[in-house]
């Protein structure tokens, strides 16, 4: 998947990261915190900060320890909370690190690694499920698929 963009939830005014399947039509919105949304937006917009931000620091630590980030996986959804894994390799040993999806996505942008979402997560996501239904949720599907680059453009606080 790719990060399609950031937007604000019109109801709760909370930031949403919108993931879109690069080969299909799957769309997964993930509500995130304001600070995490800023970290993602900074990297999307290539904003340079005078000092390393938290996710830049994490990238620097991993690189300094010769750890390669292979991918991140949004691997679970429990009680409307998404979970993610950061899959890394060091000296030939593969490891997974538990993470919030927002942090994993911010890191993935910085290290340019692939982003995956488990099929079960897509199936169990209420919004993703609503998008795939053809009956009363066709408007929601059309809304999300019809978002322009301006809608998903610059994240504003």
SSE layout and pairings?
Elements: E1 2-8, E2 15-20, E3 27-31, H1 34-44, H2 54-64, E4 68-78, E5 81-90, E6 93-99, H3 101-111, E7 115-117, H4 119-124, H5 126-132, H6 138-145
Parallel strand pairs: 4-7
Antiparallel strand pairs: 1-2, 2-3, 4-5, 5-6
Helix pairs in contact: 1-3, 2-3
Describe the structure.
The protein has 157 residues and is α+β, with helices and mostly antiparallel strands. The chain has one domain: Bifunctional nuclease domain. 34% of the residues lie in helices and 31% in strands. It has helices at 34-44, 54-64, 101-111, 119-124, 126-132, 138-145, and strands at residues 2-8, 15-20, 27-31, 68-78, 81-90, 93-99, 115-117. Strands 6-5-4-7 form a four-stranded mixed β-sheet. Strands 1-2-3 form a three-stranded antiparallel β-sheet. A hairpin with a 6-residue loop joins strand 2 and strand 3 (27-31). Helix 1 (34-44) packs parallel to helix 3 and helix 2 crosses helix 3 (101-111). The radius of gyration is 16 Å and the shape is globular. Mean pLDDT is 87; it is low at 132-137.
Please tell me what the overall shape is: globular
Strand order of the largest sheet: 6-5-4-7
CATH topology: Bifunctional nuclease domain
User: Mean pLDDT, nearest integer?
Assistant: 87
Which CATH architecture? Roll
Task: Indicate the radius of gyration in whole angstroms.
Answer: 16 Å
Topology pattern, helix = H, strand = E: EEEHHEEEHEHHH
Count every helix, treating DSSP H or I runs of 4 or more residues as helices. 6
CATH superfamily: Bifunctional nuclease domain
Share of residues in strands = 25-35%
Terminal Cα separation, in Å?
A: 25 Å
Described by strand count, sense and barrel closure, the largest sheet is:
4 strands, mixed
- Fraction of residues in helices? 25-40%
Low-confidence region ranges: 132-137
Count of strand segments: 7
The CATH class is identified as: Alpha Beta
Structural class by secondary-structure content = alpha+beta
């Amino acid at each position: 998947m790719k990060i399609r963009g950031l937007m604000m939830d019109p109801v709760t005014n909370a930031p949403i990261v919108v993931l879109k399947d690069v080969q299909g039509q799957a769309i997964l919105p993930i509500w995130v915190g304001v600070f995490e949304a800023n970290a993602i937006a900074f990297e999307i917009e290539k904003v340079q900060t005078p000092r390393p931000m938290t996710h830049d620091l994490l990238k620097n630590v991993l690189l300094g320890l010769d750890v390669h980030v292979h991918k991140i996986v949004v691997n679970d959804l429990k009680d409307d909370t998404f979970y993610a894994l950061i899959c890394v390799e060091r000296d030939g040993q593969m490891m997974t690190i538990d993470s919030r999806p927002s942090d994993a996505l911010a890191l993935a942008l910085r290290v340019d690694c692939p982003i995956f979402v488990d099929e079960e997560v897509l199936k169990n996501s209420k919004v993703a499920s609503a998008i795939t239904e053809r009956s009363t949720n066709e408007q929601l599907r059309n809304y999300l698929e019809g978002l322009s680059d301006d809608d998903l453009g610059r994240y504003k606080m």
